[in-house]
Amino acid sequence: MNILGISAFYHDSASALLVDGEITAAAQEERFTRKKHDSSFPINSVNFCLTDSGLSPGEIDYVVFYEKPFLKFERILETYIAFAPKSYKSFSASSPLWFRDKLFQKRVLAKRLNESFPCSIDWTKKLLFSEHHLSHAASAFFPSPFENAAILTMDAVGEWSTTSIALGNQNRLKLVEEINFPHSLGLLYSAFTQFLGFRVNSGEYKVMGLAPYGTPRYTNLIKEKFIHLHHDGSFSLDMKYFGYGTSLTMTNRHFAENFGCAPREPEQELQPIHMDIAASIQQVTDEVVMKIARYISQKTSVRQLCLAGGVALNCVSNGKLSSSGIFDDIWIQPAAGDAGGAIGAALVAHHIALNSPRDITSGVDKMRGSFLGPQFSNHEIVKFLSKVEASFKIYSEEEMIERTASAVESGLAVGWFQGRMEFGPRALGARSILADARSPQMQKLLNLKIKYRESFRPFAPSVLAEDCFDWFDLKHSSPYMLFIAKLLKDKQKSVSFGNKFGLELLNEVRSEIPAVTHVDFSARIQTVHKDTNPKYYKLLKKFKDLTGCPVIVNTSFNIRGEPIVCTPQDAYNCFMGTELDVLVLENVILYKRDQDSSKIKDYRETILPD
Predict the structure, then answer these.
(1) Which of 6, 185, 397, 595 has its CA 20 to 30 A from that of 13?
(2) For the chain, which domains are there?
(3) Residues 556-580: what's their mean pLDDT?
């Protein structure tokens, strides 16, 4: 049984393939088209999934879309009617696209598949549709290692639902409760994201990273004016302050009046008030998530929790939830956003529609470390590098790892390209930029000279799984970089900030690994496990042998405004257009000092909006 799952047409289009219930391949369309958050039909991703599995289009039994367009259109139409006539501008802008394409998704999907795979297949007979939050819940529960669990899905909005609680048992899912549009924690956070000058559906993690620089002095104001929070975690928003129901903006002038300042313009200098607003909305988000989690625990008595939806990418809230002990164990879908809906949709068909059982005997999750994308052989890499006349050498795996560890230890920034590309927004040691976490200058260097992004942005540590608990106050392993925790006290350094505040705090050395220690002594941790990423594990092991430290900087292999690299060509272009010192492509190593200087470009000339 071969089932293809698809998410598309909103943001982060993706496809995923299930072969007899096993997730064999998955990738986001943006990685192939190089358009960040690409929403188009994921034809390149679909082609990859089929090619990777050696399947012809005729061997696909079902194609499952991750939501139901008619239900979504019903919500949009009812919203426009409810807010009329103020909603006319928004309705007139979006309705042509709905009436032309989105409302008739089955026809559109069949047409795109026929155009991509000219053959006699009647795709309409193979098409199925899941629901948005059901796809999210399925993506979280069915690959998890749990026989039964509660599932919390929180995002902007699906068809109607913005927050849902479900119970999973074996191969079944049961919806328990939900909160519907326009009341949405995801949209509330996105409204603040836009107000702070960052892009919606892209810049929410910037708000999360900015929050520790501020003081949450607006928390009570947010709860008094914007969101009414109840003891069980249910909530409602006062739509007086928001524009997303009636216009093309998230907030309105009433929203801004509460803070006494205009919305921040993109690239405008960050002020203390912006940091305080970020800290406040983060604290409110943490409180909502914790209240809902306690309610779920009390109502269901289930000891395991699964998370999905865009809010599940908020590592700060996840970390607080993990450390609370409300649940014995927590598992989060690494592609928690809409891209992961492709996996969930396929799993809905397999387990619920076809009633296929789950295999949970191994006690490990079924995401294969989230290494589900394309991979390239040494032969393919050498062929490309020879074509562009790059200077490179091929090494044995052991020597490649030794040289890479030495490069990191000596303070060089390394582009690391190994094995199958990650599925989801995090680089997990397949398409990563690596550096020495012990360096006090490394955070600033990576942000300004390689990533070309805001200086306040923190970096994540990769740490050997067996050493994690000697460095971080973490209750669970974190293979997908989805939990934030504090460094242990004995790894912190005594710091006197004096009169410093905001971005001035960046220059203070706060720990033994300052490049990955945020201003509040926190870090977004990736635990590296031998069984899921053996080559990356060996690298960290070698680095520990050299330095005594099992931690290195791991950030995504891309620059601001671009998706994570997919191919050797993408990696080479990024290497030659930034101040990266070393590029490691499987067993092939390139040093910047050896390259033809006439081929080195400056990416800052063509940098895209983030």
Answers:
(1) 185
(2) 2-145+335-366 (3.30.420.40), 179-331 (3.30.420.40), 378-605 (3.90.870.20)
(3) 95
